[in-house]
Design goal:
Residues 180-241 form the M23ase beta-sheet core domain. One of its GO terms (molecular function) is metalloendopeptidase activity. The protein is an alpha+beta fold. It has 2 domains: 3-54, no CATH class; 68-269, Glucose Permease (Domain IIA), CATH 2.70.70. It contains 4 helices and 13 strands. It has helices at residues 3-28, 39-54, 160-177, 179-183, and strands at 68-70, 76-81, 102-106, 135-137, 142-148, 186-192, 195-200, 214-215, 220-223, 235-240, 250-251, 253-255, 266-269.
């Protein structure tokens, strides 16, 4: 087991210890000062800082390997969010191999995707978003090493109240439960040469491949969904150096013919003869 994996497990253990101490202190009226309960959580975040700074993790743009060129995982008109072209780590953390991750949302035309609501509706059904159900394609000839699609697709988190719930409650619980609850339904492809492609937040029951399958570039793998730690139906795509997000380091990528679109940049992914229209 890698040092990063052990650190991740220790981090979750310390978080659980914190919750246990808080509950025990409230229920049993223990004699020690209440602020001692926060010692495990302080140690947990100190561990994260130590691992990221001195763990020998080549996550920064300067230390990373050259970008791996792959085909785009979608077809049609999409918009990029949380792009590594704008900042690294793109999602504000190196955790789960997300250093160079990108989110993309389908927008067949401007305004086709529902806007963020100030008050109402608090949440929307997935069918309101054009990304929901869109086919996701293999970015290269590869082997499927992970494939799971049993988690439900939840409603959107595209209002202040829903987003607050996601950030303060749901995301914390998912983090405690592990990477599978963060990425939701997902596929991991072994591209060779130490690079693995992760497709996250897939639609429940949409997988067309199984672990061990060989796939060709452009082959449909699953459909876009809204499972896991997700605000709306979208594809979270990243390359990493191991199939396990708990111990992975991010690997930079570039999409053939597109590059790496910037935040809020719309791009058109071409359709090939092996891709669905």
């Amino acid at each position: 087991m890698s040092a990063r994996k052990l650190a991740t497990l220790a981090y979750r253990g310390l978080q659980l210890t914190f919750l246990g101490l808080v509950i025990a202190h409230a229920a049993l009226n223990l004699g020690y000062p209440w602020w001692w309960n926060f010692l495990p959580i302080v140690l947990a975040y100190a561990l994260v800082v130590v691992v990221n700074r001195w763990g020998g993790t080549p996550d920064s743009p300067r230390a990373a390997r050259e970008p791996v060129e792959v085909a785009p995982p979608v077809t049609g008109r999409w918009t990029a969010l949380n792009s590594p072209a704008d900042r690294t780590p793109s999602h504000g953390t190196h955790a789960y191999g997300q250093t160079f991750a990108i989110d993309v949302v389908a927008e067949p035309e401007p305004g086709a995707r529902p806007a963020f609501s100030r008050l109402w509706p608090i949440a929307r059904r997935n069918s309101a978003f054009p990304a929901f159900g869109a086919p996701l394609l293999a970015v290269a000839d590869a082997t499927v090493v992970r494939a799971t699609d049993g988690q439900r697709d939840h409603l959107s988190r595209t209002s202040p109240l829903a987003l607050l719930y996601l950030m303060l409650v749901e995301a914390s619980v998912r983090d405690l439960l592990g990477a599978k609850r963060i990425v939701g339904n997902h596929v991991v492809l072994d591209l060779g040469d130490g690079a693995y492609a992760l497709y996250a937040h897939l639609r429940r029951g949409s997988l067309t491949v199984r672990e061990g399958d060989r796939v060709s570039a452009g082959q449909p793998l699953a459909r876009c969904g809204n499972s896991g730690n997700s605000t709306e139906p979208h594809l979270h795509f990243q390359l990493m150096d191991t199939p396990d997000p708990d111990s992975a380091r991010g690997v930079p990528f570039t999409w053939r013919g597109i590059g790496v679109p910037r935040n809020h940049e719309a791009f058109e992914a071409p359709t090939t003869t092996s891709q669905p229209v």
